[in-house]
Specification:
single chain; alpha+beta; Ubiquitin-like (UB roll); 2 helices; 5 strands; about 35% strand; globular
Length: about 70
């Protein structure tokens, strides 16, 4: 059985994923210890829900990383 691939839009760019897990996407972007916010289809996903969130085909995902400065 061939694994299905998932098409999403991440921060304006088309991306093909092997996994539908939002936490896998966050891990693949090396954001595990970063301060960031995730929005899927214009809905903010709380950090507490990322581990259980499943992406679907054509989801639009925005990830914003908090950057300190002055």
């Amino acid at each position: 059985m061939t694994a299905q691939r998932l098409q999403i839009v991440l921060n304006g760019s088309s991306l093909t994923l092997k996994s539908s897990s939002l936490s896998d996407l966050v891990d693949s972007l090396n954001l595990t210890n970063a301060r960031f916010a995730v929005e899927v289809n214009q809905e903010i996903i709380p950090k507490s829900a990322i581990a259980d969130y499943t992406l679907t085909n054509n989801d639009v995902v925005e990830i914003v990383i908090a950057v300190g400065g002055g």
